[in-house]
C-alpha cells in the first residue's frame, strides 16, 4: 500500500465552508502537518477535494485537531454531485484513519466535520493509500 499526499496526486481543495487567510484550505493538500486549514467556528464545516483524475484508494488518513465527528463521502461524478457516504467516525482528536472498501474510486471526496471539541478545528493533512 502506497501513502500519497494529495498534492502528489494533483488534488486540490475546491470548496471549503470557511477560511482563514493565515491558514487557508490549500494547506490540507501540501503533505505537511506543520501547516493546516482552520475553521472559523460553527458547525458543520466541510471541504471538498477534487482529484486530477478518478483515483482508486483503499484508505484515507486525516491528521486533524479538535475534530469530534467526521463524515467522508465520495463521488465519481465530474461535477461533484451525488455524493455517497463512505464512512463516519467520532471521538478522535489528532490522528484519525478512515478506511474505504478496497479499490474504492472517486473524483471528489467531501469531508464534513459535524462537531468539534471546541469552536475551532484544524485539518493538517489528508493522505490516501492506494
Automatic annotation (TrEMBL):
Pfam families found in the cross-reference section: F5_F8_type_C
Residues annotated as domain F5/8 type C: 16-121
Cellular component terms (Gene Ontology): centrosome; cilium; intraciliary transport particle B
A biological process from GO: intraciliary transport
InterPro entries: FA58C (IPR000421), Galactose-bd-like_sf (IPR008979), IFT25 (IPR033558)
Protein name: Heat shock protein, alpha-crystallin-related, b11
Amino acid at each position: 500500500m502506497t501513502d500519497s499526499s494529495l498534492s502528489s496526486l494533483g488534488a486540490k481543495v475546491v470548496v471549503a465552508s470557511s477560511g482563514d487567510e493565515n491558514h487557508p484550505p490549500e494547506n490540507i493538500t501540501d503533505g505537511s502537518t506543520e501547516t493546516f486549514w482552520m475553521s472559523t467556528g460553527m458547525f458543520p464545516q466541510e471541504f471538498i477535494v477534487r482529484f486530477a483524475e478518478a483515483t482508486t484508494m483503499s484508505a484515507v488518513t486525516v491528521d486533524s485537531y479538535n475534530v469530534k465527528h467526521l463524515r467522508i463521502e465520495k463521488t465519481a461524478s465530474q461535477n461533484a454531485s451525488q455524493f455517497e457516504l463512505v464512512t463516519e467516525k467520532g471521538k478522535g482528536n489528532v490522528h484519525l484513519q478512515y478506511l474505504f472498501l478496497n479499490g474504492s474510486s472517486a473524483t471528489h471526496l467531501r469531508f464534513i466535520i459535524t462537531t468539534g471539541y471546541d469552536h475551532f478545528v484544524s485539518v493538517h493533512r489528508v493522505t490516501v493509500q492506494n
